Amino acid sequence: MIRVATPTRESGVFTAGNAIAARSIAVLIGVISSIVLARGLGSEGRGRFAIAAAVLGIGVQVVTLGLHASLPYYAARSPDAARRLLADGVRRMSLASVAFGLAVAGWAALGEPDWYRDCGATLTLIALVAVPAAGLQLLSQAMLLGLGRTMLYCWVAPPVMAVTVLTLLALLWAGTLSPASALVASGLVALATGIWIVSSIASGTGAAPHFSEQWSYMWRSWVIALLATMPPRVLTLALPSRAPLGEVGVWGVALTIVETMNSIAASVIAVRLAPLLADRGDGGTFWRAAWVSVAGVFASTAVMCGAVALVLPFLLPLGFGADFASATGIVVACMPGVVAYSTSAMLQSVLAARGQPPSAMLAPSVSVGATLAVLLVPGVQSGTTFAWAYSAQASVAMAVSAAVTVRVYRHRHRAASRQP
User: Which of 76, 174, 193, 397 has a CB 3.0–4.6 Å from the CB of 363, allowing a cystine?
Assistant: First the structure.
């Protein structure tokens, strides 16, 4: 049971080691899960699953309303009100899920987009129903980060992913593995995980910040999250109108590998972010830790991408099959974007830790603008071209994030130097 009133914050070295170990296990399990899906569904089935997963991913970012960023911020400052903060957030997320589902259903029925034609009504409906379940898991895990429980935050993923992959293997053995059954299994596991984490957070007696106080931080964090995570999912929904469903499946496998690398970097970011959230000062100590964190994320992600690039041409066809061999080129083309995206995310986290999500909003806005511009260019018809577009927009976002963070740092530094 987590004692919210007196949260324990583990040392940076200890939690960093646990984050690496936990994420390494999660990556291994995630690779197995991806192989099972690719082998069991084939390229076209994997394409349908990729489209449904994109709808689900966009939905989660929409309906969580920025709470996954604001909850850790306010829980770190009012730990005794964590359960109340989370309950209020889940209620708002539930209402937003209904609105999102109706909006997507209306778009699919009236507009009949190409992605809906390939995905189908049943799979789209399952994705929409799974949105609040995945959202609950995201919010509950974010609360752990705000409470300083970084070890549990890191280690909750491996057993959850293990249950998911065992379920997929059982479906494959029974001959019932399909995009729909795989999505249902993932949604049920996410729901169970969220409920378990929520039940483990003790009820506190503290008063939660008023919603009006939270909203200013929430909506800015919401926009940042939407803009930061939208490009690859928008590209996934756009690809069915430009390429066969089998190529969408290849893109889906490549994107899964890219997101796995992003998640490894995210674990390092989470460990680095926890002490920054707890630091309520604004002196040199905070900024020294912030710059070290940014450099560490950049270096570790670059090394990881280099290692993956060396082994991927041999291991990907061996694991996923010859039908997905072309995913190697897509992943390699995305690697500059992985480094840039992770570094940009750390820079934006530094700004958010200073309570300045408006300053962090510019970079993702530029990123989405670049992605939409790519979609308007005629002749962009392949996953590899989309991958280079992903890297380009992420690099622009990193440059903008760095410029904004330096500007905020200089402003705070000058303000501090003027104080007697």
Answer: 397
- The Cα 147–Cα 226 span in angstroms is 24
How far is it, in rounded angstroms, from Cα 93 to Cα 65?
Answer: 7
| CA separation for the pair 354, 270 (Å, rounded) | 15
Please classify residue 238 by burial: count the beta carbons closer than 10 Å to its beta carbon, then call 0-12 exposed, 13-18 middle and 19+ buried: buried
Residue 253's alpha-carbon distances to 27, 232, 236, 271, 322, in angstroms, are 14, 13, 11, 28, 13
Residue type, 333: A
* pLDDT of 15 above 60: no
CB-count burial class (<10 Å; 0-12, 13-18, 19+) for 279: middle
> What pLDDT score does 19 carry?
67
Q: Which residues contact 328 (CB under 8 A, 6 or more apart)?
A: 254, 312, 313, 316, 317
> Domain map of the chain by residue range?
12-418
Predicted TM-score (pTM) of the model is 0.80
- Residue 201's φ and ψ, nearest 5 degrees, are -90, 120
Nearest by Cα to 209 from 28, 71, 3, 19? 71
Share of the chain residues as helix, strand and coil, in percent rounded to the nearest 5: 85, 0, 15
pLDDT-derived band at 6, boundaries 50, 70, 90: very low
The CB-side HSE value for 176 (13 A sphere, CA atoms) comes to: 8
Q: Which residues of 359-396 are buried (b: 16+ CB within 10 A; e: fewer)?
A: bbbbbbebbbebbeebeeeeebebbbbbbbbbbbbbbb
pLDDT-derived band at 369, boundaries 50, 70, 90:
low
CA end-to-end span of the chain: 46
How many Å apart are CA 330 and CA 326, to the nearest integer? 7
Which 3 state secondary structure label does DSSP give 176? coil
Question: For the ranges 131-140, 310-319, 405-414, which has the lowest average pLDDT?
Answer: 405-414
pLDDT at position 186, please?
94
Residues 6+ apart with CB under 8 A from 407: 359
Cβ-contact 232, 393 below 8 angstroms:
no
